[in-house]
Design goal:
The protein has helices spanning 28-32, 99-116, 197-203, 266-286, 313-318; strands at residues 3-4, 65-72, 75-82, 124-134, 151-165, 168-180, 183-195, 236-238, 244-247, 321-325, 342-350, 361-367, 377-385, 388-398. The longest helix is centred in the C-terminal third of the chain and has 21 residues, at 266-286. Strands 1, 2, 3, 4, 5, 6, 7, 8, 9, 10, 11, 12, 13 and 14 form a 14-stranded mixed beta sheet that branches. It contains five helices and 14 strands. The two termini are 44 Å apart. The protein has 407 residues and is of the alpha+beta class.
Length: 407
């Protein structure tokens, strides 16, 4: 993924709270009552979110991880919590927004790098490979509606491959399993590169500040066609070219631009691919004969590439990122209470930084179905700037069965 900007200073991080220690000697009152047998009440562990600096977040509300510990040299146990509802990530009647899973895995990688591999807080990260596959488990919607309680998660992570330069971690691979209520919800893996501030400055000596306003565009896609709730959540506008969109996000969006960067954030590019896929599948289903939503891939390219990179390993990683996520539910709802197709596999490769100063176009191409996967559809979404491919994503979707009425 594109590099993730961190705070340049290293603030003092809060210590984890611990339960008060048991007094060494009993008080007279306790001694007098010692003959009365009692059953001790177990004290629940105190939990809180991990420090936001560890996961490169500006807001505590956007920190999903709650704890982490090392089991062996390359095996870790983490916990996380997703809120009942989120201001951006959509909570459906039966599942959370899958982009939350992508963000949770991103946070897990950064957290392990800082806390277990001693990567300084002022270093930059490139998340250039991330793979997620969902493993849905039907649950009674009457008792397990995701909005009733926050979703408690356990994450089992391993780092089978690490690369060091001296004592400094420069790259690592992470495999991860995500469980909810003892069910395997998702599996994933990712590859991260860690670079020093000096290296990052060498890779990107000249950058453009983010825009301050969103251009007025009458062709902004309504949120009902992007799987989101508010017009400010929509990041795409349609173009005269079939299957091609223009990236036009709100630069003040509190989630997509949660912290300052010198390029379009990777989560924004994932969201743009999701919205292009959602809009294409819904409009093509409703208007299959409309050439504006046909299957022909537009030849109109518009790219904004990363800055030129050096030939070292860090620069190669900076120019390439591979993100694969899977979604566990539909992104749009059709009439009659049935939900549309949901993405079960998402594979993304990031090739270059997405720059602010150049238009970025999103192209979508459907793949033909096969006899082996008659109920699955696959689309490839590509982002381009200045005739350069910025990222490529492949979405594979599965039809969603009707949601039964609650009782």
């Amino acid at each position: 993924m594109t590099p993730l900007t961190t705070h340049q200073d290293q603030p003092t991080l809060p210590r984890q709270r611990q339960a008060p220690a048991t007094p060494a000697t009993a008080t007279p009152a306790l001694t007098a009552a010692a003959h009365t047998p009692t059953t001790p009440t177990p004290t629940p562990p105190l939990t809180t979110t991990v420090p936001r600096q560890y996961v490169h977040r500006a807001s505590h509300a956007e920190v999903f991880l709650t704890s982490g510990q090392r089991l062996t040299d390359n095996h870790f146990h983490l916990t996380a919590q997703w809120p009942r509802t989120h201001t951006f990530f959509t909570t459906h009647p039966t599942h959370h927004d899958p982009l939350q899973a992508a963000e949770t895995i991103r946070q897990a990688g950064l957290y392990l790098a800082h806390t277990q591999f001693n990567v300084p807080l002022d270093h930059h990260f490139l998340l250039w490979e991330l793979n997620i596959t969902t493993h849905p488990h039907p649950t009674p919607h009457t008792t397990h509606h995701p909005r009733q309680h926050p979703t408690e998660l356990t994450l089992d992570a391993t780092t089978p491959h690490t690369t060091h330069k001296g004592k400094r971690l420069t790259e690592f691979t992470m495999h991860i399993n995500i469980h909810h209520n003892h069910h395997l919800t998702a599996t994933g893996s990712g590859r991260f590169t860690c670079i020093t501030p000096r290296t990052y400055q060498r890779l990107r000596p000249h950058t453009t500040p983010p825009p301050t306003t969103r251009p007025t565009n009458p062709h902004l896609i309504p949120p009902t066609h992007t799987g989101r709730n508010h017009p400010t959540d929509t990041v795409l506008t349609t173009t005269p070219h079939p299957h091609t969109y223009l990236l036009t996000p709100d630069p003040h969006h509190p989630i997509l631009f949660e912290h300052t960067t010198d390029h379009y954030p990777g989560i924004l590019l994932l969201e743009a691919a999701h919205q292009a896929h959602t809009h294409h599948t819904t409009t093509h289903h409703n208007n299959p004969g409309n050439p504006r939503h046909g299957n022909a891939h537009s030849g109109h390219n518009g790219h904004s590439g990363h800055n030129a990179h050096s030939n070292n390993n860090a620069s190669n990683n900076a120019s390439n990122g591979n993100v694969s996520t899977s979604r566990t539910g539909s992104e749009s709802t059709s009439k009659g209470g049935n939900t549309g197709p949901y993405t079960t596999t998402l594979n993304t490769t990031f090739h270059h930084y997405a720059e602010y100063h150049t238009p970025l176009h999103i192209h979508i191409t459907p793949h033909p179905t096969t006899t082996h996967t008659p109920h699955h559809t696959t689309h490839t979404i590509t982002g381009t700037q200045n005739n350069t491919t910025i990222f490529t994503t492949t979405h594979t979707t599965t039809p969603t069965p009707p949601t039964p009425p609650t009782t």
